[in-house]
Design a protein that fits this description.
alpha/beta, single chain, globular, five-stranded mixed β-sheet, two-stranded parallel ribbon, 5 helices, 11 strands, 183 residues
Length: 183
Amino acid sequence: GFALAEECARRGAQVTLIAGPVSRALTTPGIHRIDVESCEEMYQAATQAFPQHDAAILCAAVADFRPETVAAEKIKRVGDELLLRLKPNPDIAAALGRMKQPRQVLVGFALETNDEEQNAQKKLAKKNLDFIVLNSLRNAGTCFRSDENQISIISSAGQRDYPRKPKSAVASDIIDALAEAMK
């Protein structure tokens, strides 16, 4: 997300970055940063900011579910099992997809472990995205704990596969696709 925000700013865009709890600093000046702690805070910040922007790139790995209850104190071991009930977090991409105006472009991300292209296509349509960046855990040495990635960009016009490269170069590819979608 930081690489994407900085690439947009380098190209002259006015950028708002909504960031979860990370210690990373921005290296490009002029980016408006909103720090959030929870999915609910990210949802509120995103839905408030989106109407004033021409595009949104939704690359945060927000959990789909959260615990139904939060313990105020340490949970002591009692027995051999602990059952947790989960409830869904707000779906930020779906909410922005419903809000999207014809002048806006909405970019999503998908990290898939099986049926990658099919699941990404479903997410593209369901959430009203203009295109989706597909990451696959099948590409060893990419995604997590790596400075490299290998992506596919999927839109209603088709799919473009990119070779493995540094994440800064991947960010440039994604912003090239965004610039093309905004024409």
